[in-house]
Amino acid sequence: MLYPKNTKTRTSIDLNGVWNFQLGEHFAEKRLEGKEVMVVPSSFNDVIVDNDKRNYIGDFWYERQIAVPDVDENQELVLRFGSVTHRATVYVEGYQIGEHIGGFTPFECVIPAKLYDGKSHLRVTIQANNKLDFSTLPVGNYVEEKQVDGTIRSKVYENFDFFNYAGIHRPVKLIIRPKTHLQDITIFSDLSDDLSEATVHFEYQIEGDYDELKIDIIDEMGQVVAEMENNQAIISDVHLWEVLNAYLYTARIHIIKSGKTIDCYEEEFGIRKVRVANGQFLINEKPFYFKGFGKHEDTYINGRGLNEAANLMDLNLLKEIGANSFRTSHYPYSEEMMRLADRLGIVVIDEVPAVGLFQNFNAALDLMNQTTAKGNTWDNMETHQAHEQVIRELVARDKNYACVVMWVVANEPASHEKGAKDYFEPLIKLYKTLDPQQRPVTLVNIMNAGPHEDEVADLLDVLCLNRYYGWYKNHGDLAKAEVGLREELLAWQKKYPEKPIVMTEYGADTLPGLHSMWEIPYTEEYQMGYYEMSHKVFDEISHLVGEQVWNFADFETNVMLIRVKGNHKGLFSRNREPKQVVRSFKKRWTEIPNYGYKQ
Ligand code: GCB
């Protein structure tokens, strides 16, 4: 899906700002009174302040008036949403013009001309909903609970460890574009053996009739370096996209009819090669070592709503500490963040919101919650359709980004329970069929599904492990943790000698300023000791090709017995102040090269 841009033939108008807002029942035919307002983009939860409203589950509404721009008969008017969490129905003047399920991917709705012809203003209404259940991604336990005052209240017990923020999380745009237009473009390259020449391939989808499609490739100096012929273009002396040294070409696309350009668009893309071989993860044929983080889109006030300054600060902190990568745990991040990573050369492991596919996960984490039904995960989940849809939407959105080097099919599913293989095999295949770059596909493995229990690892290109030796296991005993961690990593390496291993999560909750002479969890010293122990073991495992800390920063979660106002496994606090351990990470990671660490 194309990112909205202004070009000679396209205008994109920002609809961010203050909208009328309401939680609860309403009908789109009726004007929203606007007693309450909400800022777009943001999560409504923290901004709204009231405790009950913060935890509200159900329908909620946004509405605003928009001025109708000039639209001629060859143009169309489109509403585009970066994301609405978790589902949305879009109305104009009370008429439904579209809907979308899934809270982390963009969608657009064409406004029928009959709704705006002769009008100066339009009423745009969004009916959103933040319910999660066993058919949605992420997975939540949905219940309707009787309150002490006798009323019934909807509640979602998250099957995952982050606050269920909701709202119009990403920008809303009003787009004026030609009816005949580029709908999508896919760009991928083959490189010569010596990586000096690229054959760039183009696949495109065009709406409407046209005579010719012209694509020029422009380099960073603004020079035309190649032109498309027969849907491909050759770049000799290609400038590769490298880790922390990005280079982006621009494909300048013209759709021509009767000798006239009727639509133009520009898509930036990097050229690099990714492949897995002999237990190594190769970028541009060099063995890459992942240094970085699992993250969240999570900041004070904005919640999960787009915060571009925080995104840039995070990536600057990431570079400052010597890291080179992050995973979009546990959902697709904003397009703005992906574009930033692509521009800065930061490597991204791209994840769908398939988290909570573990029937008993909540019971394991949340000691107070009794709602989780027992039983086999794969007999109970009804997520197949949502899962397939979001994989399609993620690949459609992110396929051209050079920064994306691997796709994640799910985080910590019950891959040790019977049925896991049947569930995941078609989804992994789907990624492979959709992605012309054939990026590696992985599944982020949970501790319960060790090398002897897991049922899906043979389907994966890379083994991604989340391990908490010294935290959830051997809590407070780093000596025992070291033995367990080493034993398990060696077992994985022995079982799958051809597959690289990436530690996608490891960490210990730490409250800055809490100190101890002894090995006491939650202290800064324990976090230091935990990482020292982990890194000692990682360095012994030749096929372990990356370490991504859990988490970049502290983040908000639901209220749970084991959460002290959120999850505190960040190397940085929620307001991005460093914990003590940041200094030792900086030392370690500046000494570890991006390439060739374990050759
Ligand atoms: C995990 C999950 C992550 C949690 C983390 C933790 O394994 O993937 O979402 O936040 O553990 O801190 O418990």
UniProtKB/TrEMBL annotation:
Presence of keyword Repeat: no
Glycoside hydrolase family 2 catalytic domain mapped to chain residues: 274-592
Domain Glycoside hydrolase family 2 immunoglobulin-like beta-sandwich residues, every copy: 180-272
Keywords of this entry: Glycosidase, Hydrolase
GO molecular function terms noted in the UniProt entry: beta-glucuronidase activity; carbohydrate binding
One matching Pfam family: Glyco_hydro_2_C
Domain (Glycosyl hydrolases family 2 sugar binding): residue spans on this chain: 15-178
EC class name: hydrolase
EC number(s) given by UniProt: 3.2.1.31
Top-level division of the source organism's lineage: Bacteria
BP GO terms, sorted: carbohydrate metabolic process; glucuronoside catabolic process
InterPro entries, per database record: Beta-gal/glucu_dom_sf (IPR036156), Galactose-bd-like_sf (IPR008979), GH (IPR017853), Glyco_hydro_2 (IPR006101), Glyco_hydro_2_AS (IPR023232), Glyco_hydro_2_cat (IPR006103), Glyco_hydro_2_CS (IPR023230), Glyco_hydro_2_N (IPR006104)
Tagged with keyword RNA-binding: no
Family as reported in the entry's similarity comment: Belongs to the glycosyl hydrolase 2 family.
PANTHER family the record matches: BETA-GLUCURONIDASE (PTHR10066)
Name of the protein: Beta-glucuronidase
Species annotation: Enterococcus cecorum DSM 20682 = ATCC 43198
